[in-house]
Automatic annotation (TrEMBL):
Keywords: Metal-binding, Nickel, Zinc. The keyword Metal-binding applies. PANTHER family: HYDROGENASE MATURATION FACTOR HYPA. This is Hydrogenase maturation nickel metallochaperone HypA. The keyword Metal-binding applies. It comes from the Bacteria. One of its GO terms (molecular function) is zinc ion binding. One of its GO terms (biological process) is protein maturation. It comes from Faecalibacillus faecis.
Amino acid sequence: MHELGVTFYVVRDVKKVAEENNVKKIDYVTLEIGEVSGVIHDQLVDCWNWARKKEAVTEHAKIYIETLKAITYCEDCKGQYRTIDYGKTCPYCHSEHTYLLKGNEFNIKEIGIYEDRGT
């Protein structure tokens, strides 16, 4: 399960950003994950809910995941298509001279800072 390792990197990076900006509490973290990245979202959320408690700054932070669609480019016909629907073979010209343009990303998109609004 590489989701746990990935989660530790996210917590580490979020903690570092918080320290650099003198932030005491993180409210949420938004991740962008490509649909062919190999990351299993449910497992990542479970790992996050366990690992976030190990650091005071992320202790109560929620995690949000935005899925980025996988798009493949065909070198022969110059077409683009949904990778999940057609795989490596271009649906337009049936060529296999294709490559992934996007969809395997894993990015921290946003870190939300907890704001104590008082009562």
